[in-house]
Amino acid sequence: MANDGQFNYHILNAAEGIGDIQRDWMWNLEFPTISEILPMYSTNGLWVRVRSALIPGATIDAIESQFMGSKQFFPGKKAPTAEMSCNFEETDNHYVFSAMNTWLGLIQQLDHTKGNPGVSSMPSKKKLVCAAAYLHLLAYDGQKTRTIMLHNIWPKSIDTPALGYESAGAIKYAVTFQYDNWTVVK
Fold this sequence. Notes:
This protein is mainly beta. Helices cover 12% and strands 41% of the residues. It is elongated and about 70 Å long.
């Protein structure tokens, strides 16, 4: 048993050197080049604590072939999942919510002053609205255990967060991202 110098047990002595195991987030979503898309945000990138997320998956398409009257199947191309939904818990500055909404607005970027307000005024260049993102899975001590890179990611939708006086908790909402492919970096 640990003691506090007076031979009395103290819970902080027992926890010495152990990380915070009661943390409610274990993922970070990093957008290192977000300032190229949204210049008004940090050049250091955008780091978001993710309350919950799905690790991207993939399937292999089967190629069917006939041989002497029986079917044979061969592995075909990889078909990665192309969507990921993340649940965010926002702080009182609404920095992440503002960034995601600004990004969505940039993708659509409607010009209502023109004769045809349903046409986007942005040239359809993918590099202007897509970024690379890294989903970092963290251990209890905060160290990265795995990093997944999401290629050409963009926000597809943002759920509306519920607000109310009866809710004393933080603002929580989900963002669904679309991407082309993913790879395990570490």
